[in-house]
Amino acid sequence: MNPEAKSRILEGLNKRQEQAVLATDGPVLIVAGAGSGKTKTLTHKVAYLVASGVPAHSIVCLTFTNKAADEMKRRILNLLGGETNLPFMGTFHKFALSILKKHCATLGFSLPLSIYDESESLTLMRHALQSGGGETGQSDAAARVLSKISRIKNGREIVEQGIEAVPQTLRQAFDTYESLLKQKNAVDFDNIILHALSLAKNHPDILANLQSRFRYFLIDEFQDTNSPQYALVKLIARAHTNICVVGDDWQSIYSFRCADFTHLLRFEQEWPGTRVFFLEQNYRSTQTILDASHGVIAQNAYRTEKRLFTEHAGGNQIVVARLADERMEAWWIMERIAEKLKQGCALGDCAVLFRTNVQSRVFEELCMERAIPYQIVGAYRFWQRKEIQDALAYLKCIANPKDSVSMERIINVPKRGIGPGAIQTIKNTGWDIEQAAQKLSLKIGGAAQKFAASMAFFRDSAKTMPLPELIETILAKIGYREWCDPETEQGAERWDNVQELIGLARAYPNEPAALSLGQFLESVQLVQDTDRMQTGTNVLTLMTLHSAKGLEFPIVFIAGVEEGILPHERSLRSPDDIEEERRLLYVGMTRAKNDLFLTCAQHRFIHGEYSANEPSRFLNDIPESLIERVDQGILSSLYDSENTIYL
Ligand code: ATP
Ligand code: MG
């Protein structure tokens, strides 16, 4: 390797990080606490491999979010000094989907595949239960069954026992649901991984092909991989054993998606000859923040031993504030932010983190009232909005005429007068609108026939029109703008969102939509909450603790550090779940570089009722010497002349 490139890549790494980068071949485990440069080391390692001449296409770097992959790509390009081919970098789902697409015919699928999100999967499960007869087919029954099946599909047993992992009581629902997916040439999120795994496991030629192509695996946030994900990589990587994983068992926070941090703890046994690197210097936080977060995590029984040090000795005390209610809490946090801004900090330096999405509402209201620019990550579900789902459903039907779930969604959206008789006929044809249109008489089926003609027209247009134009054509022809009613505030917002979708479609090549539609839908389906987060812009970030993984901010507020919220009430009965909640708080605390504020409210209006929560038990584990306490609970606020709200 050119010595200049080498020194550029290794520059700025500490000794341990450098050794971990240079350990290019064979199994490598980098296990370290928060902020110790795990992600940085992995980034430099990918750059180092490419610079050493390893073909980029043989490297796979798996990240927890698309956003993290994008950030890594940017840094790698920087380290490599500009344009170069980059390896595969992205989530497990993206990687597995690329395998599935290439070999889908082996499993009886064709391209383009439809990828069903949660709501589409739910519709399908409802159909599965209805056709099974026994169940009611109500949405809550369907949601329960779907969630049970999803847990199984993400768990260890399915890897070890295959279909036998599905208990008899769920077997019929499972089989029907899976065969419906197959009929519709569709996969749900879980199946993306499971199908790729089954291709690698049951087809030696495909496995050999994957093994000859992918020779280096690097995995960030390894503590949060689940069994099917890891099994897929293990199968491919065992041919070359170049697998480098990076993780922190203290930060495992996705067990509700069957993440299993024992993969990290068992890695050395599973991969003989593993070289292990411990990174102990933290570059992110002050010593006070490190000690406080260590105090919290140290109470967990099931964990490895680690200790971090930093050169940022001392640092500001951790502020623990008790406020009267959730509105006072938000108000108090906004006051602290205003103070920080006066001291010269930027709004973009601040983040408010919370356990549950609903907590964001009061902050949003205050931001709007005070004209404070903000972004919500993890709660603002652009892709789940009705108007976006509607527009996408049209595109999905155009891409995949077998996609009956999307057809069912749009059949009367906007209302086009297709009556119950016609709907029944369409249903009987498996939502094949064109077939149904031929069967229907003009009297009952006039509207359906018109709609079938529109769909045929859209499908034809896709062969010539670029994607943004196609979307505009669809919206105009179906009268979606009028249906949104942009004269009302809500309608205007809907229409704006649809315009944003068209804007996003403009990023795709200017070619007939039929060529880019598959790629567009695929990227849309794999989208995550964090994708739309802006970095480097000067706005306040409001986000859930789960989405904050891997990020850092100079000033962090964690709101609602209360019993019932953090730890969450659902976790209170299980010691393992409490440990996970503790890790979640640990992740939140270790996002902070300089200042950390933890707040709790005495009373809280949540889920439509008032509750009175005690401060979180986790707060007791922070050494008192590190804490500055603020108490503005209900009694003190009554006597506090400044707190006019309560006087
Ligand atoms: P997390 O556990 O939260 O994912 P991490 O271990 O992945 O954290 P990074 O995000 O890679 O840590 O690094 C944390 C911060 O420390 C970043 O701002 C990074 O640039 C900085 N950093 C890491 N290593 C060094 C180093 N050797 N010298 C200077 N800064 C460093
Ligand atoms: Mg990281």
Care to describe what's here?
This protein is an alpha/beta fold and 647 residues long. It has four domains: 3-97 and 204-278, Rossmann fold, CATH 3.40.50.300; 114-184; 287-380 and 531-632, P-loop containing nucleotide triphosphate hydrolases (Rossmann fold, 3-Layer(aba) Sandwich); 384-529, PCRA, domain 4. Helix content is 49%, strand content 13%. The chain contains 28 helices and 16 strands. Strands 9, 10, 11, 12, 13, 14, 15 and 16 form an eight-stranded mixed β-sheet that branches. Helix 27 (575-589) links the parallel strand 13 and strand 14. Helix 6 packs across helix 7 (139-154), helix 6 (118-132) crosses helix 9 and helix 23 (467-478) packs antiparallel against helix 25. The radius of gyration is 26 Å and the shape is globular. The termini are far apart. Mean pLDDT is 91; it is low at 636-647. The structure holds adenosine-5'-triphosphate and magnesium ion. Magnesium ion is lined by residues 38-39, 550.
Secondary-structure map:
Layout: H1 3-10, H2 15-22, E1 28-32, H3 38-51, E2 59-62, H4 66-79, E3 88-90, H5 92-103, E4 114-116, H6 118-132, H7 139-154, H8 156-161, H9 168-183, E5 186-188, H10 189-202, H11 204-213, E6 216-219, H12 227-237, E7 243-247, H13 262-265, H14 267-270, E8 275-279, H15 287-297, E9 318-325, H16 326-342, E10 350-354, H17 360-369, E11 374-377, H18 386-399, H19 404-410, H20 420-428, H21 433-439, H22 442-461, H23 467-478, H24 480-484, H25 489-505, H26 513-525, E12 540-544, E13 553-559, H27 575-589, E14 592-606, E15 609-612, E16 627-632, H28 634-638
Helix pairs in contact: 1-3, 2-3, 3-4, 5-10, 6-7, 6-9, 10-11, 10-12, 15-27, 16-17, 18-19, 18-22, 18-25, 18-26, 20-21, 21-22, 23-25
The structure holds adenosine-5'-triphosphate (ATP) and magnesium ion (MG).
Residues 12-14, 17, 32, 34-40, 248, 251, 283-284, 550, 552 line the site of adenosine-5'-triphosphate (ATP).
